[in-house]
Each structure stands twice: as C-alpha cells, then as structure tokens.
C-alpha cells in the first residue's frame, strides 16, 4: 500500500506541476560537466537514466528532451465518450504523414510518437504485451556468426530477466477474475519497479463474443503470454495503475518517482540535440553534443566525461545521426552533409506493423447483461462512468485502454501448405540473388545492406514455417471488428532528413507491400480470420460480413479489399539503427555501441533488427533495462 500511496502522490504532484518535478529550462541551470548525456527522455532513455543514477550516485546524468513534462491521459480517459476516439487532453505528440505508398493505392501512413517527457509510453494505446521467444532468437541469429563470440546476448533467455525487472504487475481482484476468466503467472514479473501494469476491472459486454468465437475455432487459451510463448488466446495487461486507473509511463516511473531522491539526475526539457561532433576524430570519444534551445534558439555544446547515449526513438535517432554525418554516404552527400562515418543502415531497415480490418454486423439481438461501447453516448451512462473513474479504486469503462485481449497465431497453424510456400519463396529471394531489388533504391547497391537483408529473410523464412512463431496478432476490445497485424513484414522503408530543413521532421517512406510476399501473407491471414464468422457463436447471432463482402473469395478480390482497408501504421516504428554486424548494414553491436564511433551508444527501438511479435512499449523498457545493465557493468569495472 505504501508504494500505491507514493504513486498517487507523484501523480498528483506532477499534475500540479510542483517545483521539484520541474526540469531544467536554461543553460545556466546546468552543471559544469556531466558523466553521461542521454539524448531523449522517452521510454528507454529514462529507464537508463534511472538505473545509472541509482547505480552511480557520484556520477551525473543529463537527459536532454525536446518535449516537456505533461500530464499523460490514458488511451480512454474523460472527456472522451467514444471509445477509440481521440482525447483533447492527450500529451503532446509528433504526427507524421509518410510519402504516398504506391503499392497501397498511394495512401499515406500516419504515425504518432510522444513529444513529451516519457516519450511514446505517455501517449500510446497502453497495450503491454511482450515479444515471443522466437523474436529474440531470430534477433540473435541475424547477428550470427559475427556476434556469436560476444558475451552479451539478446536471445530470449538473456533478455527475459530484463522484462521481469521492468514492470510491476498487479493481479486483478478475485471478483473480476471470476467474471472475466483472467489468467496470469506471477513468475513472469519481479514487481520491483514503479512502472505498473494490470488487467482492467471492466470489459465491454460483447468482448466475450469474440473470445467464444476463437474458442469455437479450437484456438487454445494461454495462461501467461508474457513468458515467451504466446501462440493462442491471450490476456494482455495494460500500462495502468490498478487503483487510480491512470496511465503508468516512463515520465512518472523513471523520472518523477525518483528525481526527488537523486541529486545526480538532471533533465533539460524543451531543447533539441542538433547533432553530435567528433572534433578530434571518431576514436577520440565521447563526442560533443550540440544543443539548441526551443525557447530562444540559443545553442551550446556539452561533452560528457563517459559517453553519449542516443535514445530519441526509431524516427529521431537516425535523424540525429544523419545530421551528424553518420549514415549512408550517398544519402549524406545528396543532402550536402559531410560524411563522418559511412553506416548505410542508419535510417534504413525501417519497419512497422500494418494490416487490414475485418468488419461485420450482428443481425440478431445480443441479449447482453453488460453494456457495449455505444452506451457511452447515453449522458447518464457517461456520467456514471466518470464517477466510477474518479472513485478509489477506479472502476467502469474509463479503466479500459485500447485492448486487453488478442490472439497470436503462426502462419503454419493457419495454413500449413501456405507457410511452406511462403518460406520457400522467401529463401528463393536469397538464393536467386534477387532480394536487393526489394530494398529502397538509395541502398539497393550496398553489399552490406543486401547481406543484412538476406540474413533477416532467412531468419523470417524459418519463423514463418515454425508452428509456434506468431505471424499475426488480432487484438480486440469489442465484438464489432478485427484488425489483423502483419507481425513480420518483408518490406523495408527509410527515414531520411528533410533537405529543406534538416532540423524539422524527417521524411518517412513506408514502402509497405514493396515486397509482394507481404500481400500473399496478408491474404492468408485474412482468409483464416474470416472463418470466425462461420463459427456457431457468430452464426447464432446472425453475423454478416461487411468487409470484405462475402462475395470476395478470389486472391485478387481479397487483395483489392486489403489495399482499400489497410492501416499502414499501427504506430510501432522500429529498426532504423539495427543491432547487426557492420558488414550486414548494422549500426550498433550487442553492447549497443555505434560501430566505429567511440563513446556513443543507441538505446531505443531503432536497434531492433527485425520487427517483433508485439507492440513496442514493454520491449522499450526491457531494452532500457538491459542496456543499463551493460553500461553499469562496463563502468563498474573501470571504477
């Protein structure tokens, strides 16, 4: 209970903006020197800052963040009345529109990331699942054989302790366990960290219809999907405190909750790192950090004693590196930037989850005892929901996030023949030396990028034919539609500087579907997921498919529907500074150090080589925890 009180106090103080939670605002408030500089106060960056200041009380840490401290509303908080809508009180975000996507009828992806202390953990859908063990084992394989001799591993067994350490999970009250059938395994959590997750004390009345449909199809329930095995029907925790039902995010758990007791922890808000500089050469690190004030445009330089850790996310980390002359030489030259270090993987290898939507109507009465989302349009019901939200403990609809259930299925389980065909076609791209034709044009001739892409393709071929490696995620909260997440796309995009103003938002090119096998996989996913409409549960309720329409049966018709209904981004950008060998287009090694640049690391979702079978929030915390362990071990040895 003491920990719950501290959380509630921290939340109240943050909302009121008490002085001891105010970050530094001016250069004059900074110390003369720092040991570590962390560029970006997001999910991973604040995790590292917390752990370093705790482990090294005599070393100083400065976090430089573009955004500022804000109260971060939940994914479904008042004053919203439409579940799944936008909240006018949401914390600040960057909103990007990609270049038109030719393979998807020239539509543009929309992706948002946090522009706030706490990063995207302060603005996301609060869905808190973890990757499967097969994701991390594939991650490890992409670095083989070059990384095999490294003592630092990123396979499942190596990173699982970081997942356990990164969150405190709160078991739901028994009344909701009995009502909804929640399951979990406390062995997957350590419960020592002020980042909270829980299962909500409320579900929409039609939530159970979809769950029953999956069970009709014989999809097994998994007791705990955060332990590495998640093929089946999963309960997914949300990043929410169970007493207050307020969002739990890095800005609280790794800054506000610890800042008052850490005299060595500074955060400089509303400042932009323009680039890093090696005045004496790449082997004479750490580099100097060039910083611009967003208040008055003044600039200053600061050089840490130990190292610089870039943690600006999959979109802004490559932007900083590119402005610094670190990236593909041809891209830098075209942008008029002197080449400091030729690393073609910077801003390349861009990936995100995407997929189509299946929609239906129930033509018979549902006869539910619990409300459905349209109940929020009733003013009396909405008022009761608000009162329940403000109660202690919180109850009712406003305790929901974007989803708390999902199925994860392998392609092999949905289509054994199809998975074999897809795996063989992926391998043939490598053996026929045609894979390069599917890479972005500006890196298509790079031997390193081709080698890296081939390594990823071979790992994904094995992934797609494995019976327990998920290829699709279908989360849901209500029985009205299903979104099908393509978990492991084969297409690769780019993040490049805006030549008109390199300090502004970069240019994102998703290139979704540029590898045609992605469409073949989407078609297989869609064919299988439509079968839920023919289950006894759905037939008894008169389910009528409206998207795709029942007459769409050919691959051509389904592909056309997919292109029309496709969501190009489920807002999980990653992989733009991948942890792979330099000769495979990698940017960082297993120790997260940038190849060829002394005193410089990257710690965020840009280091992931292949998009995982999960949303990215829990992984971002775990990567931060693992990175902190690596850095602490190295510098403890030096001490």
UniProtKB/TrEMBL annotation:
Coiled-coil residue spans: none
Highest rank taxon of the organism: Eukaryota
Signal sequence annotation: 1-17
SUPFAM superfamilies given in the database record: FAD-linked reductases, C-terminal domain (SSF54373), FAD/NAD(P)-binding domain (SSF51905)
Keyword flag Cell division: no
InterPro entries in the cross-refs: FAD/NAD-bd_sf, GMC_OxRdtase, GMC_OxRdtase_N, GMC_OxRtase_C
Swiss-Prot/TrEMBL GO biological process terms: secondary metabolite biosynthetic process
Name of this chain's protein: Glucose-methanol-choline oxidoreductase N-terminal domain-containing protein
Lineage, broadest ranks: Eukaryota, Fungi, Dikarya, Ascomycota, Pezizomycotina
